[in-house]
Specification:
With 560 residues, this protein is mainly alpha-helical. The protein is 62% helix and 6% strand. Helix 7 runs antiparallel to helix 14 and helix 18 runs parallel beside helix 21. Its cofactor is heme.
């Protein structure tokens, strides 16, 4: 009987189309069908801001594709040769093989210059998109439980992307990139005790040595991209595992996702968006030249290029060192260059503040719940103000990193620019914090007013006794829900210092500090109480609106 069944089954298999037989074979060994069934219909919400993460992913793919092409022609060697290529002005000049191969890619390899430009532009857009994407996650509170680990993955991708870009634009061994490498080596040398050893290990001897291009090449194409690929895969797996976050709205809760399925709708849109991103990067690369190595020539340790600037994401570190006073400490026969060492310490601290913020906020609020509904930035004014202050400090230092270009282009004193950056690095973030917080509170007041009084219609009405008023339209049920569904945390309280028996309670300094932070985040003056059902009904009754029971329930549903 079993033999007959097996023969019948094999006969059916032979009748099946070839594609189905291949699919059955693969499913029997890899479990593709069950995996696809569980994940291909996964729901993703639809909002324009979610495309920022997609731009990161697609630009990374473009970097990998163009990078593979460039590795076929690039020679990562610092051996000196005489350039005899197509670019006549540099013929007969001694250059490294790395520089010569970069020139060959630019002038002799079919499509080489365009691929170089696409690779470089994609790297710039990748880091920019990651920063904007992380700011979207930050301002909407998408980093909260259970996504703290995924936030760290994104942070590491940003930092590794910055250093991958740095090692990448250092490879051509031209005068601008060589100046940047020299800048980095000087920063390393400022580290007490171990700085000289790190420099010797990295460059294989005294700067520039003969090994830094091949070493940077290995780091650039193998080590850092490999780590980033692993982080990216982990990042996407956690996005699928945790469900996608979504903005507040009717029918959206922490237990569901309202949107479209991954297959076929979302995959079709994502595929089209990939080619759109690729096309935009290709057009920008074709019309805007980056890093024209032929114009600046090969690197020489006794030369420095005027207007030498790093890629924008390293402008912050450059600005810190440019505007830092040249302080030094001489002790026991050694010199500690504080003018370089202090910025070298500040840079990772400023970046690290981003990494640990989710844990700080969770500790301050004591909130251990899962969050899948995003905040509106105005409803978390302290967090939003911190983010804007951080961005302000970053952009102020970008001005410091390009102080020479600002001076020449705008006919300003470079000393005036330097002092402006020095002062506003400390004053600017404080002002940005205060102004942003006031704006958020103002927007909260406006939302409260809209819930209670409705939306201004622009229609002017004259009452029987001659008074002119503007007619307000009551908000829809959906709008009422969106404006009142957010949680308003209450500051943590230490409680009375003595218990009911008159015994003084022991309160640790950490608990006191946490309570002060919590009060600073959520205390009086840090959030505007949202409208309650009672207030809404009272005003509705006074105006005789009779909006109906459903709207009242929406206001109630947002009360916590």
């Amino acid at each position: 009987m079993s033999t007959t069944t097996e023969n019948k089954q094999s006969a059916d298999d032979r009748k099946a189309p070839a594609g189905e037989r291949v699919a059955d074979w693969a499913d029997g060994r890899l479990g593709i069908y069950s995996l696809a069934k569980a994940n291909m219909r996964k729901i993703f919400p639809d909002h324009w801001s979610f495309m920022l993460g997609e731009i990161c992913l697609y630009s990374f793919i473009i970097i990998i594709l163009t990078g593979v092409y460039l590795t076929l022609f690039f020679n990562p060697s610092m051996n000196e040769i005489v350039y005899e290529g197509s670019y006549v002005p540099l013929q007969g000049v001694k250059v490294s093989e790395a520089f010569a191969s970069t020139m060959d890619i630019s002038f002799d390899v079919r499509g080489g210059l365009l691929i170089r430009q696409i690779h470089h532009w994609a790297a710039l857009i990748f880091v920019a998109a990651m920063m904007v994407h992380m700011m979207r996650v930050f301002f909407t509170g998408a980093f909260r439980k259970p996504r703290e680990v995924n936030w760290l993955f994104g942070f590491l991708l940003l930092v590794l992307g910055m250093f991958t870009g740095f090692t990448g634009y250092s490879l051509p061994d031209d005068l601008i990139s060589g100046t940047g490498v020299r800048f980095m080596q000087g920063a390393i040398l400022s580290v007490p005790i171990v700085g000289t050893y790190i420099s010797m290990f990295l460059f294989g001897g005294e700067f520039p040595g003969h090994d830094f291009v091949p070493r940077f090449y290995s780091i650039h194409i193998l080590l850092l991209p490999g780590i980033m690929m692993a982080l990216l895969v982990g990042h996407l797996i956690l996005v699928i595992y945790h469900k996608h976050t979504q903005y507040a709205g009717p029918g959206r809760t922490n237990k569901n996702v309202v949107g479209m399925p991954l297959l076929p709708v979302y995959m079709a849109k994502a595929g089209g968006f990939f080619f759109l991103v690729f096309g935009v990067i290709a057009v920008v690369a074709a019309i805007a030249t980056l890093n024209p190595v032929w114009a600046v020539g090969p690197y020489r340790i006794d030369q420095v290029s005027t207007g030498a600037q790093p890629d924008w994401y390293m402008g912050f570190a450059e600005g810190l060192i440019r505007v830092m006073p040249g302080w030094e400490i001489n002790a026991w026969g050694h010199t500690l260059a504080l003018g370089v060492f202090i910025p070298l310490v500040i840079f990772p601290l400023v970046l690290g503040a981003i990494a640990v913020y989710p844990f700080i906020e969770s500790w301050v609020t004591g909130d251990k719940r899962e969050h899948h509904i995003l905040d509106r930035p105005r409803n978390a004014p302290t967090r939003t103000a911190f983010g804007v202050a951080w961005l302000f400090a970053y952009f102020i230092m970008l001005i410091g990193g390009g102080n020479d270009l600002f001076a020449t282009h705008f006919h300003l004193s470079i000393n005036a620019i330097t002092w402006f950056v020095r002062i506003f690095f400390f004053v600017g973030p404080v002002l940005a914090f205060i102004i942003t917080k006031r704006i958020c509170l103002g927007l909260q007041r406006r939302d409260r007013d809209k819930v209670l009084h409705g939306r201004e219609s622009g229609i002017i009405k004259r009452l029987p006794h001659g008074e002119f008023i503007e007619v307000h339209e009551p908000l829809s049920q959906a709008d009422l829900h969106t404006l009142t569904t957010h949680v308003q945390h209450q500051p943590l309280e230490i409680g009375p210092e003595v218990d009911e028996n008159g015994v003084r309670r022991k309160v640790s300094p950490v608990q006191k500090f946490r309570a002060k932070l919590s009060k600073g985040f959520y205390g009086e003056g840090n959030q505007i109480p949202k409208a309650t059902r009672e207030e809404y009904e009272e005003i509705a009754a006074a105006h005789g609106h009779g909006h109906g029971h459903d709207e009242h329930e929406e206001v109630t549903s947002g009360k916590h």
